[in-house]
Amino acid sequence: MNTLKQEALTAISNLPETADIDTIMYQLYVIEKVRKGRGAVQNGDTISVEALKRETESW
Fold first, then answer.
1. What integer pLDDT is reported at residue 12 of this predicted model?
2. What is the CA radius of gyration of the chain?
3. For each of the chain's 59 residues, which pLDDT tens digit applies?
4. What is the distance between the alpha carbons of residues 45 and 57, in angstroms, rounded to a whole number?
5. pLDDT of residue 59
6. Angle between helices 4-13 and 21-42 (to 10 degrees)
7. Helices (H) and strands (E) in the chain, counts
8. Contact of 4 with 35, CB cutoff 8 Å
9. Tell me, what's the pLDDT at 14?
10. With DSSP H G I counted as helix, E B as strand and the rest as coil, what are the percentages for the chain, rounded to 5?
């Protein structure tokens, strides 16, 4: 897996030259959320689809 810095640099370099700071920050935010999600899966911190459905039905 790439380092966080490598992922950030790749994401930013793929943006158009006209990208504004909000677009750059959003890309970094997405990278953070994906990395946290992958970490949760690796640690087994997940729930089943059925449990999620039950949880959201009570809203």
1. 96
2. 16
3. 689 999 999 999 999 999 999 999 999 999 999 999 999 999 999 999 999 999 999 88
4. 21
5. 82
6. 140
7. 3, 0
8. yes
9. 97
10. 70, 0, 30
User: How many residues are given for the chain?
Assistant: 59
- Could you tell me the residue range of the domain that residue 36 belongs to? 4-57
Query: HSE (CB half, 13 Å, CA atoms) of 9?
Result: 5
Distances from the Cα of 28 to the Cα of 9, 15, 53, 57, angstroms: 10, 12, 30, 32
Domain count, the chain: 1
Predicted local distance difference test score (pLDDT) of residue 17: 97
Closest CA to 1 of 36, 35, 42, 27: 35
